[in-house]
Amino acid sequence: xxxxxxxxxxxxxxxxxxxxxxxxxxxxxxxxxxxxxxxxxxxxxxxxxxxxxxxxxxxxxxxxxxxxxxxxxxxxxxxxxxxxxxxxxxxxxxxxxxxxxxxxxxxxxxxxxxxxxxxxxxxxxxxxxxxxxxxxxxxxxxxxxxxxxxxxxxxxxxxx
Length: 160
Description:
Elements: E1 7-9, E2 16-18, E3 22-23, H1 32-44, E4 49-52, H2 57-67, E5 75-80, E6 82-85, E7 88-91, H3 95-109, E8 114-119, H4 125-132, H5 137-146, E9 150-155
Parallel strand pairs: 3-4, 4-5, 5-8, 8-9
Antiparallel strand pairs: 1-2, 6-7
Helix pairs in contact: 1-2, 2-3
C-alpha cells in the first residue's frame, strides 16, 4: 500500500500545496517524453506545486505539453527576473524584459494567470533594494496581481 500525499496551507493564501513539489530546473534539456512522464507521474502521485524557473522558449513549450489539460489541478509558479541571453540563463532586473518573459510564459502555457509569481533570486540587501524600489520588479508583481494575472506574490532568495 502506497503513501498518500499530504498537503499544507501556503501561508495565508488559501492554497493547499503538496508537501513534495516539483522544481523543473533539472528537466531542462531533457527529451519531451521524459519531461511528460515525470510531470504526469508527479501529478498522479499528488504533487500539485510546479515551480518553473527557466524562461527558455523550447523548455517552456515542453513543460506546456506535459501540463496540458491539468492547469486547474496544479499550482503554477513563474519567476520574474529569470531570463535568458543567447540561449543561457541570466538573471535580470529590467522591467520590460521581465514583463515580456511573463507574457510569453502565459501564452506558451495557455493560461491567463499564474498562482504565484516569484521575484526571482534576491541575492542580498542591495538586490532587495533594487527590486523593492519604486517602479521596480515588486511593483510589476503587484500590477500583475492587481490585473488577475498572478494570484499571489513571493520571493526566492536562495544562493547557488
